[in-house]
UniProtKB/TrEMBL annotation:
Zn(2+) binds at H80, H82, H249, D324. Pfam families: Amidohydro_3. It comes from Halalkalibacterium halodurans. N-formimidoyl-L-glutamate binds at Y152, N326, G328. Its EC number is 3.5.2.7. The gene is hutI. This is Imidazolonepropionase. GO terms for cellular component: cytoplasm. Catalyzes the hydrolytic cleavage of the carbon-nitrogen bond in imidazolone-5-propanoate to yield N-formimidoyl-L-glutamate. It is the third step in the universal histidine degradation pathway. 4-imidazolone-5-propanoate binds at R89, Y152, H185, E252, S329. It catalyses: 4-imidazolone-5-propanoate + H2O = N-formimidoyl-L-glutamate. GO terms for molecular function: imidazolonepropionase activity; iron ion binding; zinc ion binding.
Length: 426
């Protein structure tokens, strides 16, 4: 039957539809659907056909794009970013080189607290302009949906400013943004001796945030010198009662029992998990909590011990990976680099990695129904890669392999050649 499309991508070498009912757990993460010599039809911004070139033989389209054997995948999902912040922290690099630990820098008023000062000082407009620069870079790396946290205000006014800025950039940028309230990111200097009062103040904001629909999730930094497991439980329970989904920065540096708490409370994801215990992993598996691993952060903090992705997958967890984009522990927008570190350091296979950055990332931020998959009827968020196969992207590390990015059926990023005749495709 002849079918007509707005756009038809033809001669796709490998197409990864990533179709799935729920997140891919455990062994399912290695079962990759792969279409070779494929075509993808787009109509009204949505995927309208996925199949082989033979099936598409008689199809017509307003524009035919010859993919010349390239890899095509869904737009990537980055499920853990600290997108909105003022300033930068390049001067901390020297301290890190001298061996000053991350939590020590924070204790001395640097780290997160330095970014809090810069974020308080920035206007909402400045935060928006800066965030758009970061989003542009993410888009260029093939990311079409992200989660963005607040948490560099640590006071009412600035946390609101960050949440409003996240909403504003989501309305004007092609990347879809899912917002998380991370008011409990650190103890501000003003409340150093009374963290419980600080958490009460942050909890007081929850009702209004919900009413104004400024965040879907609530997160907390459960860590030595920040918030204890007990404080985290009390705070997150309040958020749960108000109808928020829950996330935790869990067991990032010290193994405190954050993974156990995530499982106990039925959090949608627990993030970092470098020190997660066997019991914590089991509790997460029972609860269906997704493990969001951030190996770029471990790398950037200069640590040798990475999250136990293999044990987590063996225990049946759904694993996603993310940049953790932030100005301190992971200043990069490049999710492709994180895919390479996941391969090298987490020992994840290419099949697991592609599930992690698409379908599982989407489920970790409540977008399983709309992002991370190419299926008929879903938004056509598509990446065409300058690669012939899906192994290639994590393998050739540290550079950008994106040829073009499509959001809702329109090209939103295209790699430009430096000058005619220069070919740098492989
Ligand atoms: O996920 N650990 C807490 N939060 C961030 C780091 C934030 C910062 O250093 O500015 C993280 O690593
Ligand atoms: Fe983080």
């Amino acid at each position: 039957m002849v079918q007509h499309f707005d756009t038809l991508l033809v001669n796709i070498g490998q197409l990864l539809p990533m179709e799935s009912k729920g997140p891919k757990r455990g062994k399912e993460m290695s079962e990759l659907q792969l279409l070779e010599h494929a075509a993808l039809g787009i109509r009204d911004g949505k995927v309208a056909f996925i199949g082989t070139m033979v099936e598409a033989d008689t199809f017509t389209a307003n524009q035919m794009i010859d993919c010349q054997g390239k890899l095509v995948t869904p737009g990537l999902v980055d499920p853990h970013t600290h997108l909105i912040f003022g300033g930068s922290r390049e001067h901390e690099m020297a301290l890190k080189q001298q061996g000053v630990p991350y939590l020590e820098i924070l204790k001395n008023g640097g780290g997160i607290l330095a970014t809090v000062e810069a974020t308080r000082a920035a206007s909402e407009e400045e935060l928006i302009t800066k965030a758009i620069c970061h989003l542009n870079r993410m888009l260029s790396y093939g990311v079409t949906t992200i989660e963005a946290k607040s948490g560099y205000g640590l006071d009412r006014e600035t946390e609101w400013k960050q949440l409003r800025a996240a909403k504003a950039v989501g309305e004007q940028h092609p990347i879809d943004i899912v917002s998380t309230f991370l008011g409990a990111h650190a103890i501000p200097t003003s409340h150093r001796n009374d963290p419980d009062r600080f958490l009460d103040e942050m909890a007081d904001m929850l009702g209004e945030i919900k009413e104004q629909n400024l965040a879907e999730f609530v997160d907390i930094f459960t860590e030595t010198g920040v918030f204890t497991v007990e404080q985290s439980r009390t705070f997150l329970q309040k958020a749960k009662e108000k109808g928020f989904g829950l996330k935790l920065h869990a067991d990032e540096i010290d193994p405190l029992g954050g993974a156990e708490l995530a499982g106990e409370l039925g959090a949608i994801s627990a993030d970092h998990l470098v020190g997660a215990s066997d019991q914590g992993i089991q509790k997460m598996a029972v609860a269906g909590t997704i493990a969001c691993l951030l190996p770029g952060t471990t790398f950037y903090l200069g640590k040798d011990t990475y999250a136990r992705a293999r044990d987590m997958i063996d225990q049946g967890l759904a694993v996603t990976i993310s940049t953790d984009f932030n100005p301190g522990s992971s200043p990069t927008e490049n999710l492709q680099l994180i895919m390479s570190i996941a391969a090298l350091r987490l020992k994840m296979t290419p099949e697991e990695i592609w599930h992690a950055v698409t379908v599982n990332g989407a489920h970790a931020i409540g977008r399983g129904d709309t992002a991370g998959q190419l299926a008929v009827g879903r938004a056509a968020d598509v990446v065409v890669w300058d690669a012939k196969n899906y192994y290639y992207v994590p393998y050739h590390y540290g550079v950008n392999h994106v040829h073009s990015v499509w959001k809702k059926g329109e090209v939103v990023y295209e790699r430009r050649r430096a000058f005619e005749g220069l070919s740098i495709s492989r």
